[in-house]
Write a structure and sequence with these properties.
This protein is 33% helix and 22% strand. It has eleven helices and 17 strands. It has a five-stranded mixed beta barrel. A three-stranded parallel beta sheet has the order 3-6-9, covered by helices on one side. Strands 10-11-12 form a three-stranded parallel beta sheet, with helices on one face. A hairpin with a 6-residue loop joins strand 13 (298-306) and strand 14 (313-316). The structure holds iron/sulfur cluster.
């Protein structure tokens, strides 16, 4: 947002800003601080690099079970509602060896799980290696037990990647598939590059190959010109897929995007609100239905933290479901086999076997 709104931020006298640094300007921070303090003038550097991947900086991480690792940056997709291609630039990926080296070090430090990050993570590509190759290389590292990734685009799931997720025991059986909308005209206006039918056939293919896969999604309700009937398509697709979880938002115009220039934000706020509410209620029912299917099953759970208020321990299944573990004392990073005894739309409850 600093990149996108720099002019307004610098000119607004009510906001006390000395300088603005874009995501690729971090190496210039000492200069920016010096310039701002010596001249007293507001300054900015939001230059985007074609090559910057952060591969030569290793974040300092505290102990934990999971480490987040950026493996690619930027996006070439230009969904019409999204600022990412303008504020983060085009896609560029780190080398496989560079990522593997970082993960090896994390495994030595005791991390058991890594989550690979990228604005369009499954379009990862470096020196002829694709995302499946990267996952495969990381899975060979001893000590790393689980690999997750986010956020993928539905168009970048070749059979090779689905096959790898299905067969590699370290790659979690969890897919985030951002649907955004279920109507083909709206998907086209969004420039999502898939149709409702293509999305549903991808879901079928994944479920056929990975039977216990859990699926989550993102939805935008009230995109410009979306009619009641077109909205019903989104409702029906969500009903059909039965996602385990969904992040549902009202359309909110982002400055400088194609949608903001071409499509007036013409759906009234109350209609957007009603649509979000209907989808959220549907999702709650679907999530409960999906979670109840786990009751009686036994899952390997990685203990992640203890809730400060309830003092209950929490961990996650391979599919990413949050499990509450009452009445026991655990350690962060511990593996436990848990039989699920109860479910709500958002969590499971279980007893150690
Ligand atoms: Fe890229 Fe995702 Fe933004 Fe689309 S929504 S332009 S895929 S970052």
């Amino acid at each position: 947002m600093a990149t996108n709104l720099r002019k307004e931020l610098l000119e607004n006298r009510n906001i006390n800003i000395d300088f603005i640094a874009g995501p690729d300007s971090y190496k210039r921070l000492p200069d920016l601080i010096r310039e701002a303090s010596q001249t007293g003038e507001k300054t900015f550097d939001v230059t985007l690099s074609e090559f910057e991947t952060y591969s030569d900086i290793q974040p300092l991480r505290k102990e934990g079970t999971n480490a987040w690792i950026a493996v690619m940056r930027g996006c070439n997709n230009f969904c019409t509602f999204c600022v990412v291609p303008y504020t983060r630039g085009r896609e560029r990926s780190r080398g496989v060896e560079n990522v593997v080296e970082e993960v090896r070090r994390l495994a030595d430090e005791g991390f058991k799980q890594v989550t690979l990050l990228g604005q369009n993570v499954n379009s990862y590509s470096h020196d002829g290696k694709d995302f499946a190759d990267l996952l495969e290389s990381i899975s060979r590292i001893d000590g790393i037990k689980r690999i997750r990734f986010t956020s993928p685009h539905p168009k970048d799931f070749p059979d090779k990647l689905i096959e790898l997720v299905a067969t590699n025991p370290k790659v979690c059986k969890q897919m985030h598939l951002p649907l955004q909308a279920g109507n083909n005209r709206i998907l086209d206006l969004m420039n999502r590059t898939y149709t409702q039918e293509e999305f549903l056939s991808l879901v079928d293919k994944m479920r056929a190959r990975i039977p216990n896969v859990s699926m989550t999604t993102d939805i935008i309700a009230g995109f410009p010109t979306e009619t009641d009937e077109e909205f019903e398509d989104t409702f029906r697709v969500m009903q059909k897929v039965e996602f385990d979880a969904a992040y549902i938002f009202k359309y909110s115009e982002r400055k400088n995007t194609l949608a903001s220039k071409k499509y007036p934000d013409d759906i009234p706020e109350d209609i957007k609100g009603q649509r979000v509410l209907r989808l959220s209620n549907l999702q709650k029912d679907m999530a409960l239905k999906r979670n109840l299917q786990h009751v009686g099953q036994t899952h390997a759970v990685l203990v992640e933290y203890s809730d400060r208020n309830t003092k209950e321990w929490k961990g996650r299944t391979d599919g990413g479901q949050l499990v509450t573990l009452p009445g026991n004392h655990f350690q962060i990073g511990q593996w436990v086999n848990v039989t699920i005894t109860a479910a709500t739309p958002h969590t499971l409850k279980g007893n150690i076997v």
